[in-house]
Specification:
Layout lengths: L2 H7 L1 E8 L6 H13 L4 E6 L13 H12 L5 E3 L12 H12 L3 E8 H5 L7 H7 L1 E5 L6 H15 L3 E4 L8 H9 L10 H9 L7
Parallel strand pairs: 1-2, 1-4, 2-3, 4-5, 5-6
The chain binds adenosine-5'-triphosphate (ATP) and magnesium ion.
């Protein structure tokens, strides 16, 4: 069987990884666009556990996991995995990809989704060279990040590591979890920036009162 035939018969599962602190409609729009444009058979959201390079204390993983479940609940094509929040110690994307490849086997192409900001710094991730060779990536545009710089980065990653990196333009939504946390903290509205259930969960549980 030629490489091309092999690829076409493979299933394609996308992984949407993030701290999701909290999940917002920017994440959901990215997932929808990637799912459609890359014809993904499954879209798996994976809230991070305890990433090594965090710049601040993350909200308890249970809250972040529940909000992610609430956000994707109404979409039968989206699912959430607790694979990282259940893991003890630091969680590395490399371990997650290896674990999923073991579960799903050779007939599945795993595609890890990264926003422009994330792919620009992917080489700082744990054992990045191994990770970039192990699974495919998709880089999506994000407001505030220069597209030419992004394309240069993709070219350099592809030639340096032989990585498969798809590039996708997504509808620009200038939304970040940082901004949402700051809005909640300042008593400002987050309506329409996160799903309604997530908004209610944040308010009910008093999240982001302290930053
Ligand atoms: P924070 O401000 O806390 O860093 P965030 O909004 O960047 O939060 P993350 O959980 O860090 O959200 O991001 C998870 C993934 O989603 C990353 O690959 C990130 O680049 C991507 N992403 C997040 N928001 C957007 C957006 N508005 N447009 C495109 N990609 C996004
Ligand atoms: Mg981020």
């Amino acid at each position: 069987m030629s490489n091309q035939e092999e690829t076409s018969t493979k299933l394609r599962y996308a992984i949407m990884g993030g701290t999701f602190d909290p999940i917002h409609i920017g994440h959901l729009a990215v997932a929808e666009e990637v799912k459609q444009k890359l014809h993904c058979d499954r879209m798996i959201f994976i809230p991070s556990g305890n990433p090594p390079h965090k710049k601040r204390v993350l909200t308890d993983a249970v809250h972040r996991y529940i909000m992610t479940v609430m956000a994707v609940n109404s979409n039968p094509h989206f699912e959430v995995s607790d694979i990282e929040v259940e893991r003890q110690g630091y969680t590395y994307t490399l371990d997650t990809v290896k674990q999923l490849q073991k579960i799903y086997g050779d007939n599945v192409e795993l595609v890890f989704i990264t926003g422009a900001d994330a792919i620009l710094e992917v080489e700082t991730w744990y054992k990045a060279d191994e990770l970039l060779k192990l699974c495919s990536f998709v880089a999506v545009t994000r407001p505030g990040y220069d597209k030419t710089k992004l394309e240069q980065k993709l070219q350099s990653l592809q030639s340096k590591y032989g990585s498969v990196i798809y590039s996708i333009d997504v509808p620009g939504l200038n939304i970040s979890s940082t901004d949402i946390r700051q809005r909640v903290n300042g008593g400002n509205s987050i309506k329409y920036l996160v799903p309604e259930t997530v908004e209610q969960y944040i308010l009910k549980n008093g999240l982001y009162k302290e930053l």
